[in-house]
Amino acid sequence: MAAVLHCMKTLIIAIDGPSGAGKGTVARAIASELGYRHVDSGAMYRAVGWQALRNGVPLEDEGAVARMAAGLRIEVLANAVSIDGLDVTREIRTPAIDRAAATVARWPQVRAVLVERQRRMGQGGAIVMEGRDIGTVVFPDADVKVYLDAAPEERARRRAHDPAHSGPTEVALVKSALTARDEGDRTRTASPLYVARDATLVDTTGKSVAEVVAEVLGVISGKLRTEK
Ligand code: DC
Questions:
Q1: What confidence tens digit (pLDDT) does each residue in 145-167 have?
Q2: If you measure from the C-alpha of residue 104 to the centroid of ligand 1, how many angstroms do you get, rounded to a whole number?
Q3: Which atom, in ligand 1's list, is nearest to the CA of 104?
Q4: Residue 106 per-residue DSSP state
């Protein structure tokens, strides 16, 4: 399979799904397997939420948040996120920023700023981008679209034990916050989370990372074979 995957044009791979479905781990592994860039688009919404709180910009003021976002230099690297050169990798993964990011992600003007940057990152292909609207809005023509999901209990357990995130580790608490945020992501008017018509749904419940990565690589190579 690896041979099929390595001898081809540079692809855009979109991975969407709710929190804790395993997008980050899987997208990183796929990017590393293919030698592609991995971009966590959620980190960009988190960066905007973090900076708005820091600057005292009201999260409910769409225009002010969007103007602020347009002036920010957000760098999302494989293992680090920075805003105007300041490393915020850890600071953006707290319960307060979970909420702030979900709020700013509701605003079409904020999304327009970030989507435009995400599209620019994808211009040369060779990218695995994860988020909520990557296959539906950012790259509707992505070569491969995968939607990862898992049972809420399992997603909450993963998030509670994720060392990149600070906050409560009690699964019940994490689950109620996570379910509420996901409901918000699914029902918002601007770019809600849903499974793109041409996406392959992969349920990661009860599967190891290695199993899911193998399944997704299988989806990618299957897609390439049908295109030939
Ligand atoms: O994936 P995450 O939990 O780090 O995302 C943070 C927030 O940003 C979450 O509320 C969903 C939102 N988001 C979005 O609306 N669109 C994306 N492409 C990525 C994340």
A1: 999 999 999 999 998 888 888 88
A2: 10
A3: 8
A4: T
